[in-house]
Amino acid sequence: MNDYKERLRLQRRILIITLFAIIVVTAILIIKGEFVKTSEDSNEHLFDFMYGARFGIVIAAIVNVLYFIVGISRKLNSEEKLKAGYIKSSDERKKLIVQNASAITVGITYSILVISVIIATFVNMVVAATIIAVLILLRCTYTFTYIYYRNKY
Amino acid sequence: MKNKIQQLRKEKGLSQEALANEVGVTRQTINSIEKEKYVASLPLAYKIAKYFNLSIEDVFELTEDGD
User: Fold this and answer.
1) What ipTM was estimated for this complex?
2) Which of A3, A30, A52, A118 is 20 to 30 A from B27 via CA?
3) What distance in Å separates the CA atoms of residue A128 and residue A123, rounded to the nearest whole number?
C-alpha cells in the first residue's frame, strides 16, 4: 500500500510538471500567433480545421491532466479512497482484461496500418512512408518490450 | 477450476464485497471466480484459502480438463 501511495505521489508530480509544460508551450504558441492564424491559401477549411483540432487537443489534454491530478489528490487525502484505488489498480482480473484488450487492439491496429500502407502507396507516397515509419516504430517497441519481459520472467 | 467460495462465504454470512476487501480484489473478481468464469491466480487462491482457514485444495478443485 505504501508503494502505491509513493507511486501516486510521483504520478501527481509528473502530471503537475506536464500541465505546466502544456500551459507554457500553449502560451508561447498563442503569443507567436499560431493559434489564431487564419487561412491563407485555397485549403481554407482544412487550415481552419487543423487549428481548431490543435486547440481542441490542448484543451482536452489540460482537462484530462487536471482530472487525474484531482483524482490522485482525493485518493491521497482519504485512506478509504486510497484502499479502493489500490484494490482497483492491483486487481488481477482487471489486469488480465486490460492485457487481453490491449493485445487485440494492437493486433487490429497493426493490420489496419498494413492495409493503409497498401492503399496509401496508390494515393500519396508521403502518407505511405509515414505509416511505414509508424509500423517500424511499433515493431521495434514490441521487440524491445518482448526482450525486457522475457528477461524479467 | 471448481471452487467452494460461494458456499464458504455464505456459511460465514459474508458478502462478495466484504470477501473482496479482505483478500484485496474487486467484488467483480470474486463474482467471476464464483461463477467459474475466471481462475484465481495462485497468490489469490492462497489468500482466499487462508481467509477461510483451509488449504487451497479444500477451496479449489482442478477439473479433468485442467481448468
Assistant:
1) 0.87
2) A3
3) 8
Gap between the Cα atoms of B67 and B47, Å rounded: 19
Residue A30 above 70 pLDDT?
Answer: yes
Per-residue pLDDT reduced to its tens digit, A102-134: 999 999 999 999 999 999 999 999 999 999 999
A87 contact B CB<8A: yes
The residue among A83, A72, A81 whose CA lies nearest residue A16 is A72
**Residues in A touching B44 (Cβ below 8 Å):** 92
**Nine-digit cell at A100?**
487481453
CA B64 to chain centre: 19
Nearest to A8 by CA among A95, A90, A82, A61: A82
Residue B64 has φ and ψ, to the nearest 5°, of -65, -35
pLDDT digits (tens, 9 = 90+) for B12-38: 999 999 999 999 999 999 999 999 999
Instruction: Find chain A residues with C-beta within 8 A of B25's C-beta.
Output: 87, 91-93
Q: Is B44 in Cβ contact with A94 (below 8 Å)?
A: no
Instruction: Inspect the interface and report whether the beta carbons of A92 and B28 lie closer than 8 Å.
Output: no
Smallest CA–CA distance, residue A81 to chain B, in Å, is 13
Residues of B in contact with A88 (CB under 8 A): 26
- Cross-chain CB nearest to B28 (options A83, A90, A93): A93
C-alpha distances in Å from residue B30, one per residue of B13, B37, B44, B51, B52: 15, 10, 10, 13, 14
